[in-house]
Design goal:
- With 241 residues, the protein is of the alpha+beta class.
- It has one domain: Rossmann fold (3-Layer(aba) Sandwich).
- 40% of the residues lie in helices and 26% in strands.
- Strands 1, 2, 3, 4, 5, 6, 7 and 8 form an eight-stranded mixed beta sheet that branches.
- Strand 7 and strand 8 form a beta hairpin.
- It starts with a helix and ends with a helix.
């Protein structure tokens, strides 16, 4: 077999594989942020809880910005299409679905300011046995898989030139399940905020005014970091979806 023929066969196979992959469809079934920030360097759980319940600690605008970036240029890198969000939100079974997470309903969690979800999405927490995912796959059986996206934040101490500073570390988790309920990939990436805050007497000021800009700065850094994982996600999706 000559080189031209071999190249032609390989090209045809690549085009067929690409076309097949683009015919695949995935439903994003949750997109939320955890309101309570982690304080690994300070250990003040009470302060984090007070911040999470403060009505001025509003993560919604920055989460919406991250959501729009995700479904914008970033999502084009995946080797499949996303089910339109309107079809997810208007699915009757999805609208009435209460994910398993102990005896606490999603509405109760939202009232207690535990999570901030993009409007229309249920808050689906990771639970042992993937029972939520199995139920969601039945609701969206026209799709080849479901995806979950959520973010959380940690406030960390950083020392620069003898000065006590704090930065926020934003974490994003992206999980994809195929229609058989198998996990295709689970990506967890993080990015530090460019902005920083000061430590006063060795302690940070844990108020919405001080923390929100750091959270937004960190979230802005996440999409470029996630871009680096795209080849790995594409490879796994092509193999397992």
């Amino acid at each position: 077999m000559n080189k031209s023929l071999i190249f032609s066969v390989l090209l045809i196979n690549l085009l067929i594989t690409s076309a097949y992959a683009q015919d695949k469809k995935v439903a994003v079934v949750t997109f939320y942020a955890v309101n309570q920030i982690g304080l690994p360097d300070f250990g003040s759980v009470a302060a984090a809880a007070r911040l999470a319940s403060d009505p001025d600690f509003n993560l919604r605008p920055m989460l919406k910005k991250f959501h729009d970036q995700f479904f914008g240029d970033y999502s084009k890198g995946f080797p499949f299409q996303f089910l339109p969000e309107s079809e997810v939100f208007n699915n009757e079974a999805y609208k009435t679905f209460i994910p398993e997470q102990g005896k606490v309903s999603v509405s109760d969690m939202l009232k207690s300011s535990g999570y901030t979800a993009i409007k229309g999405y249920q808050v689906v927490l990771p639970v042992k046995g993937d029972s939520n995912e199995k139920n969601l796959l039945k609701m969206f059986d026209q799709c080849d898989g479901i995806m979950e996206v959520y973010v959380n934040f940690d406030l960390e101490a950083k020392g620069f030139g003898g000065m006590g500073l704090v930065k926020v570390d934003a974490h994003a988790t992206i999980v994809l399940f195929n229609k058989n309920g198998d996990k295709v990939f689970s990506i967890n990436e993080h990015a530090l905020s460019k902005n920083e805050g000061a430590l006063i007497a060795g302690l940070p000021s844990i108020t919405p005014k001080k923390i929100l800009p750091l959270c937004e700065s960190a979230l802005d850094e996440l999409i470029p970091v996630l871009q680096n994982d795209m080849p790995k996600m594409v490879k796994k999706a092509n193999a397992k979806l």
